[in-house]
């Protein structure tokens, strides 16, 4: 799986987006208003024109769960990855009806079921508000800079989208603050699951095969957007083209890469390599172990924990890959060389000065705050609810421009939806996660640290997690709604232990935000703007910004690569699954694959790889051919792509795609779905 | 806890011991024949004379379980750490009689109980066999070098110790092969547990307080050596001195530091930082998580898993500390500077040439073999038995000089003892460990790797671990004895699934050993000898060899340190435990501490820190004063000592000691043990 992008996590990290030194080969996650048509034409002898780009953009969908997707019918049908809807399937599953395991194939549209917390969004306009935001920042610094910037962004967003039911406005800093763009979205907050294969069909090979290729995964599913109880008729949709790819043919990936750190300075890279990644990998591995063992305790737990485990193992593989990349001397040298080149080109430019030193100072502060920032927000869905409810009550009482991000008028509708949607909390998982998080807090902060004492008092992590998760009623959406609607008075009156815990941590939580803004985010924003200027001066304007979970387009081609001296062919076939299966998990065939083995056309292309430049958040992105028709959905990167957060390696980075040909064949012979087939292939079945 | 030294693991790593650039302050784990008396006298105005050293050496004990200790009575009483006997206590515990939890205080010597697998050894002679071994090596290289060296060492050992019941001979390469010394030991293979406090008294503060200070731990226990069913009368014993330490007073730690890597070249450090430590920390964290969760399943599992978890958490803290040290730019720079200095001093010396390049090539080979070496020997006690039995059958049929290390005539008695002693195997722990090990093999080697396929065939790690551990009878010592005594015919006839598994892996296991000898150990031994010469030429002979789990002496003093700008006092008192206890695990008082709170003299020194230079394997080492009396047992390092594997930082590295004063007070008021008190304090109670 490509790592799903977690909006909140990305917001916390607040990585400044800077410029790459020079895009080579297919490198680049381009904004739609900055597509390098001339460059592509020089390489491929062809490039899309503006109408092609406009049509494609209008059909591209962002899923607020952290994925990408596309409309593929005029009745609101959305193609995405199975791993982007697995959460939804798990939420809708019960002990008697394991929708994640069996998949979901409703007999009619009336049986399609709403995915809790999910929202689909289509960009309708992109406007430049750089001058406006920069004027508000003026010469401010530190926390004042962040506050003024956030306040102005909140005002622009509110003014831009008076209709908060059908539209959403977001001001996005690009190039670390070199540009501010106002993205306007048409939003659909009723998104239903329309089709999903068996879990094993999508996860064949499991964690061992994840991020590897050759691959045999039906990592595809369909959602449908609804409005007023009816399927949406989107402004545009992509034409479904169930054919296999041609080696060497041009491909486009259109989606929302979550975040990249391609222009981190040496100081920022060192913090990732020395602190953030080791702590993350070490502690997450322990949680993985706890979960694996819990799931072995009963079939019920095995089912309930599956999706959580997939997410953890996927993230771990990403972080381990990043550590490996940063520990690779050749890769590290390339990044260092890029910085050295920019420094030398900028030498003597007084307006630029030494932003690298400013970044290094901010990174020192960030290191000092890292463990507190990490552990003073314990890992628990119930705690997340409590924190949001406590904060919302306080923030909503303030003027729009004074509120924390996430609580401004423009952001509140999605925050409210996420809190109030009926997404089940699995108590044992939440308790385990909280217990782990509190015990790691004590381990890393130390027993005698004031933050550690504030968290735990004299309780043990185990007893505290049992008390809080066991005693909280926040798993009930009605209880959350009462607290949301009741505002500060309801929060003040609540005796829910998780609410009390969130209230206890609130002051320190806000103080950490303020310290981080003052010492890290503010200085980094100011430095990034100067680094931005330095890059423009050195390399011109033809560069792409770091990823920001906004719509981008990448061009590339169908192509294998050389792995340890051996060529990896770019394409697998459905027949390959049968050859690879051993019967032992996770290499056991999905039951429908086994049952329909005789019917399946084994020559059909299953998965393929392309040179497109993608990253987590791109999951579910449509893969288009030159005609603009969809020939697949991107669902993964190869193992070499894991360093892609820091840099694209043209020779070995690959995007992994599930082909429309395979999905079509599955709809025909493995999971016969005539209505869906007809809808996709343009034959009206209604 | 100080990390216990694992002999086999250290043998596998085969780190070449080289010279430090320059010992500063209290740095140094000195051999008894190389004690720097002049240097100490210059710093302290006093140094021990030869009789002092001889007496001390004769009372020092090595425990083959991986710890250090000392005789403290004329009736074979041995002082060591509680964490050095915790394994034994766990082995002797049952569901009805939790000796680890309650501790062990026999009413009389007749009730003292034998510790499975444990052997006590006292050095009686050290001889130089350098010329002899080097002659055997001649100009050989690679695997031939290793083979010739090992064969000659086996011959020397066999000739040196005709009495294999009471003596043991070991040839130890020092300075990576610059010297070879023959150590002769008086051995005692019947070692019984004589006294242990409650587990919580020793582990108060648990993992959170481990490697930290201030500290409140009664990490002390007593063993007794027996021979012919009677307590041993040792050649020498240390005088028990139950007084608190004086700040600034000189202290000596006498014990067996396991291994250090203080003179790794840059290439070797990079391999640790980039490969070995990240893989180890990540995977061990997952095992930790699995075990934590398993232990939560029942009180029985909680008891059974405790000692395993303590070991894992302790190792993890060590490895995490090493990673942190290597990722600390200042620490890394110091190590790089040492190498640069030696290179510059050696420039132009043709006899030395460029051993750094040879080491770098060997390290490249070591990296390539690392995952196979790690995973082709699955983690399971039952597998270890099977592998030893399979190998022993084949090796014993060969001439002494042709055998693998561990199976030579001189090594066989201990190997046999470890295999045949009645040490219980806890099936669920062994199965969990094997499942984890096989699943990590598949994850790191990859599904399609030939080694991975050889391990798993078409089975899943889960199914295979269940089949092998569930089906094997090797947990029964009688079954092992039949296979040991039956030799190759018994092995050939065995249908035990673990024996079959070990036989399946044997050829590849041996091939990996050969490849490692050829490409790594051989070249490293040759290069280390030249690096050794380079260091002698540059810095003279007054330097100490890297640790080799042989007897060393370190001098230092009682002293606190500055931590983040604040002084840490060097001493805690028994009363501090009561102040620190919260009632919540692991900060709950041991029951006897709570019950006897009114009787305890709270002013008595509990733990203290010194500047002595120690490492894992030193656990249980006696801490002596100038008079040569024992005032404590070393049981830990502080958090800053974790980089001590690579380098000693005089300002912040500290040894943590449990004082004899506290042990004496515990024997008086907390665990009243009048006979033991009398024995220690020289009043014959018999």
How are the SSEs ordered, and which strands pair?
The structure is a homodimer of 686-residue chains.
Chain A: H1 7-13, E1 30-31, H2 37-44, H3 50-59, E2 60-63, E3 67-71, E4 77-80, H4 86-92, H5 99-102, E5 113-114, E6 120-128, H6 130-137, H7 142-160, E7 167-174, E8 179-188, E9 190-195, H8 199-203, H9 206-209, E10 221-227, E11 230-231, E12 250-255, H10 266-295, H11 299-326, H12 329-346, H13 355-375, H14 381-396, H15 412-420, H16 427-445, H17 450-456, H18 461-471, H19 477-493, H20 497-539, E13 552-557, E14 561-563, E15 566-568, E16 571-573, H21 574-580, H22 591-595, E17 605-610, E18 622-624, E19 630-637, E20 655-659, H23 660-670, H24 674-680
Antiparallel strand pairs in A: 1-13, 2-3, 2-6, 3-4, 4-10, 5-9, 6-8, 7-8, 9-10, 10-11, 12-13, 12-18, 14-15, 16-17, 17-20, 18-19, 19-20
Helix pairs in contact in A: 6-7, 7-20, 10-11, 10-13, 10-16, 13-16, 13-20, 14-19, 14-20, 16-17, 16-18
Low-confidence stretches of chain A: 6-23
Distinct helical segment count of chain A = 24
Number of domains of chain A: 2
The CATH topology of the largest domain in chain A, please? Thrombin, subunit H
Span of the ends, CA to CA of chain A = 35 Å
Q: Which band does the percent of strand residues of chain A land in?
A: 5-15%
- Gyration radius of chain A (Cα, Å) is 24 Å
Given this structure, which CATH class of the largest domain in chain A is correct?
Mainly Beta
Inertia-based shape of chain A: globular
Give the tally of β-strands of chain A: 20
- Multimerization state: homodimer
Q: Would you tell me the overall average pLDDT of chain A?
A: 94
The structure class of chain A reads alpha+beta
CATH architectural grouping of the largest domain in chain A: Beta Barrel
The description of the largest β-sheet of chain A is: 10 strands, antiparallel
Q: Greatest chain-chain interface? A: A-B, 49 and 48 residues
Helical percentage of chain A: 40-55%
């Amino acid at each position: 799986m490509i790592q799903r992008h977690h909006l909140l996590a990305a917001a916390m990290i607040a990585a400044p987006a800077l410029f790459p030194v020079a895009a080579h080969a297919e490198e680049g996650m381009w904004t739609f208003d900055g597509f390098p048509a001339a460059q592509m034409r020089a390489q491929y002898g062809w490039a899309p024109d503006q109408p092609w780009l406009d049509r494609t953009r209008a059909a591209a969908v962002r899923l607020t769960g952290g994925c990408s997707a596309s409309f593929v019918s005029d009745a609101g049908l959305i193609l995405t990855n199975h791993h982007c809807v697995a959460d939804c399937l798990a939420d809708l599953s019960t002990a008697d009806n394991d929708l994640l395991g069996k998949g979901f194939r409703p007999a009619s549209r009336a049986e399609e079921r709403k995915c809790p917390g999910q929202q689909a969004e289509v960009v309708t306009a992109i406007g430049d508000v750089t001058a406006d935001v920069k004027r508000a920042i003026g010469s401010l610094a530190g926390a004042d800079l962040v506050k003024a910037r956030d306040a102005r962004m909140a005002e622009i967003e509110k003014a831009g989208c008076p209709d908060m039911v059908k539209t959403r406005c977001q001001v996005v800093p690009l190039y670390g603050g070199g540009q501010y763009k106002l993205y306007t979205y048409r939003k659909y907050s009723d998104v239903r699951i329309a089709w999903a294969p068996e879990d094993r069909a999508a996860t064949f090979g499991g964690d061992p095969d994840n991020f590897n290729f050759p691959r045999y995964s039906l990592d595809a599913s369909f959602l449908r957007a609804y409005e007023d109880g009816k399927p949406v008729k989107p402004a545009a949709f992509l034409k479904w083209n169930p054919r296999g790819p041609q080696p060497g043919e041009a491909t486009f990936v259109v989606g929302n890469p979550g975040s990249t750190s391609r222009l981190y300075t040496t100081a920022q890279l060192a913090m990732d390599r020395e602190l953030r990644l080791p702590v993350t990998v070490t502690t997450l591995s322990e949680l993985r172990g706890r979960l694996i063992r819990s799931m072995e305790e009963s079939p019920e737990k095995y089912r309930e924990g599956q999706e959580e485990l997939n997410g953890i193992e996927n993230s771990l593989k990403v972080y381990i890959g990043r550590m490996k990349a940063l520990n690779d001397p050749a890769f590290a040298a390339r990044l260092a060389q890029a910085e050295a080149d920019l420094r030398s080109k900028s030498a003597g430019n007084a307006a630029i000065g030494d932003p690298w030193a400013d970044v290094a100072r901010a990174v020192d502060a960030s290191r000092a705050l890292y463990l507190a920032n990490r552990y003073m927000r314990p890992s628990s869905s119930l705690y997340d609810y409590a924190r949001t409810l406590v904060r919302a009550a306080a923030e909503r009482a303030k003027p729009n421009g004074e509120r924390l991000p996430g609580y401004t008028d423009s952001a509140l509708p999605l925050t409210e939806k996420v809190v109030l949607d009926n997404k089940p909390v699995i108590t044992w998982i939440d308790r385990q996660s909280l217990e782990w998080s509190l015990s790691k807090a004590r381990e890393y902060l130390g027993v005698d640290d004031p933050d550690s004492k504030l968290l735990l008092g004299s309780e043990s992590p185990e007893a505290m997690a049992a008390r809080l998760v066991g005693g909280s009623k926040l798993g009930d959406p009605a209880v959350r709604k009462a607290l949301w609607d009741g505002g500060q008075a309801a929060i003040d009156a609540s005796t829910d232990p998780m609410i009390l815990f969130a209230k206890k941590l609130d002051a320190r939580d806000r103080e950490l935000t303020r310290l981080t803004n003052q010492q890290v985010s503010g200085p980094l924003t100011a430095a990034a703007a100067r680094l931005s200027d330095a890059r423009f001066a050195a390399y011109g304007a033809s560069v792409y910004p770091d990823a920001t979970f906004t719509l981008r387009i990448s061009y590339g081609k169908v192509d294998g690569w050389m792995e340890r001296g051996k060529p990896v062919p770019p394409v697998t076939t459905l027949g390959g699954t049968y050859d690879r299966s051993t019967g032992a998990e996770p290499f056991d065939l999905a039951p429908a694959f086994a049952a329909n083995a005789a019917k399946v056309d084994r020559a059909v292309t299953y998965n393929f790889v392309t040179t497109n430049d993608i990253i987590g958040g791109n999951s579910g992105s449509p893969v288009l051919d030159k005609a603009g028709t969809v020939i697949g959905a991107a669902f993964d990167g190869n193992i070499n792509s894991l360093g892609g957060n820091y840099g694209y390696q043209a020779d070995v980075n690959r995007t992994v795609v599930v082909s429309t040909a395979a999905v079509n064949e599955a709809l025909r012979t493995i999971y016969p779905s005539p209505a869906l087939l007809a809808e996709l292939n343009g034959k009206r079945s209604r």
